[in-house]
Amino acid sequence: MAVGFRWLHILDPFFKVFKLVDIDDNAAYKHKWAEVTSLGDYALFIGAMGSKAVHVSVEAENYGLKRNHMYYAKYTYFWIKKSPYGAAYSLTSDDGDRIKMYLFHSPSKAASKRFVGSHDGGWVAMLVTDTCVLAIVNLFSGDEVALSAEQSNIASVWPHLQPEGVSKVIFSGDPASPDGCILAAVVQGWLWITLCRVGCHDGTWTANRWDQGLIDIAFCNGDLYGLTRPSQELYKFEIGMEGDCRLVVTARQQLSIQRPNELTWNDGTRGGYMSYIFELQGKTSMAVRTRWLPHLGPFFKVFELVDMDADEVYKHKWVEVTSFGGHALFIGPTRSKAVHVPVSAEHHGLERNHVYYTKYTCSWLSNLPEDALYSVTSDDGHIKMYSKKYQNFGDGVERTGYYVEGCNYATWVHPPDL
User: Fold this and answer.
1) Tally of CB atoms within 10 A around 329
2) Residue 132's CB: how many other CB atoms inside 10 A?
3) CB–CB of 165/188 below 8 Å?
4) How far, in Å, CA of 230 to CA of 264, rounded?
5) Which range has highest mean pLDDT (49-58, 153-162, 307-316)?
6) 230 cis-preceded (ω within 30 degrees of 0)
7) Does residue 81 have a pLDDT over 70?
8) What is the dihedral of CA 85, 333, 164, 404, to 10 degrees?
9) What is the rounded CA–CA span in Å between residue 256 and residue 313?
10) Is the alpha carbon torsion for 254, 255, 256, 261 positive or negative?
């Protein structure tokens, strides 16, 4: 028996497989359902009109059919306007206006995991939902980065750390490269920065106490930066090595920055303020969502850090950016990235000079806005996510928000060709 159900309250429904087994004669029941986690050399094809276990030969695997894999069909009650990124393929209506069907492969290693960060090429940092065991998996290839027991145990410096206490994990580079990369995580209410070296088998997590709350961290041009709240100060951290593989923060520098006069933490809107840092065209940049105009709701503006003259009071200042140089911005709590958009990609819905951002909601989504672009709905009609494109505020920047149900952040995942 295959059952699609919300097995974990923080995740969408997914299938589990059970087999009927006999019970001892003296038991109250004669049989019981026992979960199956290995299908052997078989793949399952599941659907409303028929389900079957199919033996997969070695030759068949060369053509994309996988053992221990579940393929299932599901209908939807809503029009599919766009194929999700990572769709293996899609079938479009004759007029090209609607996606009739799409297929997406998700590695079994990603099941029942909480995503806490991602990196270029489809790499995702994920935690087991009831522990803090870390895995780094590529959602498109299924490859996994080899981690030692110490590297997988992000809670080694906090024995009672829960997955919800890990706010974000970022990568300094390609985790699968021969040289590895640095992982930086923020835990325990954004008050601790933890570091670990991937690619060094003896690497362990180290804890670095931070006196101020952090709203975001990012690697920009190879350096680690942190943005504080509510003071909105930007810090640069120097990372050193103790021994062969142990990383520590050896120094931190508060950058002397002139802030925009209109930038304010308390905009009077609950959950309205957001601020994220990232690299845009080689410069440390910041996207801030707040109430910039009194008669409008909060929206994002983008700034880049520029140097000031030597005789100025401040060494740097934030300058607003209204042209992203052929890039689109993907903004969110666990991943922010500037992606170059070729002209050919604009024909498929990806737009230059556009801010795409995610925002969670701590309440159930009961009604869709009239101007929602599209939505994802469960079988019972419950809204899981919707997207909405906002008005142009006259600065040449377009903005689209993706609103996700629940208090768990969505994560941008960028395929290898981005």
Assistant:
1) 24
2) 24
3) yes
4) 9
5) 307-316
6) yes
7) no
8) -50
9) 9
10) negative
| pLDDT on residue 176 | 92
pLDDT tens digits, one per residue of 185-194: 988 766 788 9
Would you state the structure tokens that stand for residue 250, as one six-digit string? 């050896």
Give the integer Cα–Cα distance in Å for 119 and 417: 13
| Lowest-confidence segment of 73-87, 113-127, 132-146, 368-382 by average pLDDT | 73-87
Q: What's the pLDDT score for residue 262?
A: 60
Termini Cα distance of the chain: 39
Return the SS3 of 372. strand
Maximum mean pLDDT: which of 79-83, 271-275, 285-289, 398-402: 285-289
The residue whose two tokens read 């992606």 is 339
Tokens of 41: 């050399």
What's the whole-model pTM score?
0.73
Closest CA to 298 of 318, 317, 275, 323: 275
Q: What is the CA radius of gyration of the chain?
A: 24
Q: Above 50 in pLDDT, residue 2?
A: yes
Q: Does an H or E element contain 115, and which?
A: strand 113-119
What residues have CB less than 8 Å from 192, skipping those under 6 apart?
Answer: 186, 207, 208, 209, 210
Structure-token match 């994309």, residue found? 64
